[in-house]
Amino acid sequence: MANNIPTQTEASPGSVPWKALVFSGVIFGISLMIYAGIAFGYKPFLTSSIDNIDAQISELDRVAPKKESEEEFIQFYSQVTNIRDLLSSHVSAMPFFDAIEKNTFSQVTFSDFLISVSARMASVSGFAGSYNNLANQLAAYENTESVSSISLNTARLADEMVRFEATINLDDSMFDFQKRILIMESEESEEENESGEEAANNSTTEQ
Amino acid sequence: MKSSAKRLYVSLGSLVFIAGALYVYATLIRPEFSEIQALRGERQAQSVLLADYKTTIEETNRVLAKYESVSALQEIFSEVVPPNENIPSLLNQVYGLASLSNVLVDSIEFQYLPIKSVSAGSLIRPFGTLRVSATCVSGYEDMKSFISSLETNVRLMNVDAINISEGATGEDPMLAYTLTVDAYYQTQ
What we know:
The complex is a heterodimer of chains A (207) and B (188). Chain A is α+β, with helices and mostly antiparallel strands. Chain A has a domain at 94-178: General secretion pathway protein M, EpsM (Gyrase A, domain 2, 2-Layer Sandwich), CATH 3.30.1360.100. Chain A is built from five helices and four strands. In chain A, a hairpin with a 2-residue loop joins β3 and β4 (161-170). Chain B has helices at 3-70, 73-80, 87-100, 140-151, and strands at residues 104-113, 127-138, 157-167, 175-186. Chain B has two domains: 1-71; 82-186, Alpha-Beta Plaits (2-Layer Sandwich), CATH 3.30.70.60. Chain B has a four-stranded antiparallel sheet. The interface between A and B is large, with 67 and 66 residues. β1 (108-116) of chain A pairs antiparallel with β3 of chain B.
C-alpha cells in the first residue's frame, strides 16, 4: 500500500503524474485567487480611493473663493495694472507752452496753433516782422531742447509782414509728465526759499 | 482502478486545471486588469487634480486675503480710472475746472475710442478711452491754468490736442480753442 503513494523521487514514465496534477491545481488555484483579489480586493479599494478623492474635491468646492470675490479681485487688479500703465504714459502739454514762451521773439505773432500731443508735433501759422526775424525765430526753436526738427511749409509777404506756416516736430521728453512734476517741485522749493529769505531779511530790518 | 486509467484521469485532471486556469485568466482576470488600469489612471488623474485644485485654492485665498486688506484703495483707484464711463461726473469735472480757470466752455463732445484688445488668456480687462472735445474761450493764462488742472486732475486725463484757431489782440486778448482730452474708464 505504501508503495502506491507517489513521491517526488519516484517519478517514472509509467507512474501516475501527481506532480503535474498538483502543479496545475496550484496554477488554477492561484489564478482564482488573483481574480478574487482583483475583483473583491484591489478594485473596490481603487473605487473607494477615487470616491474619497471626489469627496475631497467636493469639500474643496465649498471652501473655494466665491465667484463674486474673484470678479471683484480681477476688476481691482485690472484697475491697478491699467492705472500703472496710464501713469507711465501720462503726458503734459505745459512744458511746450513754457518752451514757446521762452523762445518766441516779440517780432513774431501766431494766428493759428495746433499742438498734437499724441503726434508729438505742432503746426503753427503766424506773422514775422521780416524774413530775417522768421529765420532767427526758426533757428531759436530748432535749438530748443526737446525739439527734434522744424520745417517751414510756406512763407510769403503780406501787408509788410511775412506770413508763415511751420511744423515743429517734438521729442517725447517735451511732454514728459514726470519731468514737469520735477520742474514744479523745484519751482515750489525755489519759491519757498525766496519767501524764507524775504522773511529773514524782514526780521533783520525790524531788528 | 488500473494504473493506466488512473494516469489518464490524473492527466485529464491536470489538463482541466490548466484549461481552467487559462479560462480564468482569459475571461476573468484580463478584463479585470483592463478595468484596474483604467481605475488606476483615473485615480492618478484625480489625485493630480486634487493637488492642483488645493494649491490653486490656497493661493487664491491667500491673494484674496491680501486684496481684502487693500480693498479700501479701490475707492481711490475708482476716482482715477472709474469702473464705468461716468460721463456726468466727467462733464462736471471738466466744467468745474473750466469755471475755476475762468474758461468759457462753448460746447463739449464725447466720443468713445476703440478699446485696445489684450493678449489672449490675460485676466486683465482693458481700459476704455472717452475722448472729450471742448470748444472754449479764455485768455492765454487761463487756458494754461485749465490745461494744467486737467492734467493734474484726480480722474486721469491726457491732453491729446490743443487747437487755437482764433486769437484776438488787445489788452485782454481772448483765445478761441478746442481742447481734445482723453479720459479713461475700466471696462467690465
